[in-house]
Amino acid sequence: MKPPLRVAVTGAAGQIGYSLLFRIASGSMFGADQPVILHLIEIEPALPVLGGVVMELQDCAFPLLAGIKPTASLDEGFKDVDWALLVGSVPRKAGMERKDLLGINGRIFTGQGQAIARNASPGVRVLVVGNPCNTNCLIAMNNAPKVPRDRWFAMTMLDQNRAVAQVAQKAGAETAAVTNLAVWGNHSSTMYPDFYNARVGGRPAIDVVKDDPWFKGTFLPTVQQRGTAIIKARGLSSAASAANAVVDTVRALTTATREGDWFSVAVCSDGSYGIEKGLMFSFPVRCDGSKWAIVQGVKLTDFSKARIAATEAELKEERDLVSELLPK
Ligand code: NAX
Description:
- By secondary structure, this protein is an alpha/beta fold.
- 42% of the residues lie in helices and 17% in strands.
- The chain contains eleven helices and 14 strands.
- Strands 3-2-1-4-5-6 form a six-stranded parallel sheet, sandwiched between helices.
- Strand 2, helix 2 and strand 3 form a beta-alpha-beta unit.
């Protein structure tokens, strides 16, 4: 057996945590031969609920679960971790402006970034899920300068999976046949799922579907507003599909990407495609099993370029709203 990986999950007593922890402990995230130790981080008032989740994890008798460490201490929680999955954050409440939410959550991610830098394993990788995830990740990364910038990620895989499912349904194809569907930019309603480069069974999706107005008038708003539609239907935000996307993202970053394909994750921009350096921006990415790279040379239509510029503008605006949380 391999030595166990230590995986921290913040917001572990929340909705996403309730789906995610069981997937990690079962081996879905790191494979059937990789034991894990779960570091479950919560705020003090949520510790009793977290205690119940710990009992349920124990009751699964997962062979790969080598330990569980529930805590409200960031230093304890991030001690020696190989992965930090930052899920917990404060939800937007009635009357709260976006700036207020950015400020409240920004302060959480300042402390978490610093605690990761102080405590985590030297090879730690961090995936931010808690919203606004791109900017929360930007804050944590900038407060942990000794953790290299290529180890920070924010999640747009749920948006990609939603987009893939819509195209597959429309084309009458299996989801596995839909490839190269990258989500660009911010995980917000300005995100841009680039249907022009998407493929179905190896052919351009636009040639298979042959319905440009559908892509622009139905597909885009459906994907961009899917989170809202789920809240309306369920009375709660998406949780199982979000947890599934966390599993997919970590797997995508730790296994080789299929030949010719790519996946979506927000990474620290190196200036590719003219996106301002340093922003956490979702790009098409490939991985060789350990190292990832932004796919270069993807052809963008004028329509795509305009959408990408709009989502970049929103990310710059968010960054400017939290500038006091970004050490110079
Ligand atoms: P819940 O409200 O069910 O759970 C959040 C948990 O975080 C709570 O248990 C809370 O006690 C905990 N928490 C709050 N502050 C914390 C802190 N400082 N340290 C540790 N834990 C803390 O939310 P849930 O549905 O699980 O969603 C979690 C986050 O994921 C939200 O910000 C949500 O907006 C975001 N999402 C992001 C998605 C993405 O694609 N990037 C999609 C799904 C989801 O909407």
